[in-house]
What does this fold into?
Amino acid sequence: MSNSELETPILSIENVSKRFVKSLDLAGKIAQKLGARVREEIVHAVDGVSIEIKDGEVVGLVGESGCGKSTLGRVVAGVHGASDGRVLFRGQDVANLEGIEAREAALKIQMIFQDPMSSLNPRLRVQDIVGEAPVVHKVVNHSEIEDYVAQIMTRVGLDPSYARRYPHQFSGGAKTKNRYSKSACSSARFFGLR
Ligand SMILES: Nc1ncnc2c1ncn2[C@@H]1O[C@H](COP(=O)(O)OP(=O)(O)OP(=O)(O)O)[C@@H](O)[C@H]1O
Ligand SMILES: [Mg+2]
It folds into this structure.
């Protein structure tokens, strides 16, 4: 990676806002027709947030319940579009990327959920859970997957000889590491922990 690439923040969140419109249900619509002063509600989940994150930096987002942390994470991961503002990955507005570029940026931003079991299929071995995404996304060939998974497991501090175990055979912390391996395997560069 060139010096100028390293100087560009890996992620720039510029004045991002996210609003949700809560439409009226049937009862609300009928009440409105009958003249009641009810209307659709707008939830300002995220309001003008700007953050820059450079390579190797770890940023924690802290705030009371409902203040918009998860929503911001979802906007960054592309689950929700921003109502206002921009998300730049390595200086590029992710909303303007198309085709292969959009796919590559999406792969490089991964979420790690608080409850690892909700994102680890209990019926699959770790080898298959961790190995699925890199094969689907053509990060490695099928024949190389065993070595690749072992390499990633070692990188996150898991014994690669446990690759044939199921998620329930790991401790809580190790399950989270498995989730991390699953994300890391798709060549992610930025991780959002939720
Ligand atoms: N899909 C949605 N539709 C409507 N409102 C939403 C949606 N997602 C989140 N909200 C609202 O946006 C606000 C922020 O929610 P969010 O989940 O981002 O908070 P949080 O900071 O992650 O909270 P917690 O610490 O409890 O996880 C809340 O008022 C929530 O009800
Ligand atoms: Mg949350």
Notes: DSSP finds seven helices and six strands in the chain.
